[in-house]
Amino acid sequence: MSDEIKISEYVKKRNELLIIFEDLSDKELLDKLSDINLNNMPPSPKVARIALHKMRLQVPIMPKNLVEKSKKWLLDNGYSLKID
User: Which domain, by its residues, includes 39?
Assistant: First the structure.
């Protein structure tokens, strides 16, 4: 089996994850990220959650309530809204 996925498949899986990641356990989150990102994994579930909140802000089709929820979460936890 190939380690590559089509861009359309990646975007679909990424968008689905951006909608549900807050409800996932750390193990479930890492499993889903592994499925999407293959060998490109964040160093911890905490870093993954920060990155996913920031990613929500960059995806134009994200529901506004989720974007606002992520902005609040990032600011409440002392993180910048920028991807840096």
Answer: 7-76
pTM: 0.86
| Phi, then psi, of 59 in degrees rounded to 5 | -100, 110
Q: How many domains does the chain have?
A: 1
Rounded distance, CA 40 to CA 66, Å? 25
Q: What is the mean pLDDT of the chain?
A: 91
Q: Give mean pLDDT, residues 48-67.
A: 96
Whether 38 is covered by a domain: the verdict is yes
- Phi and psi at 35, nearest 5°, equal -65, -40
**Closest to 69 (Cα-Cα) out of 83, 54, 48:** 54
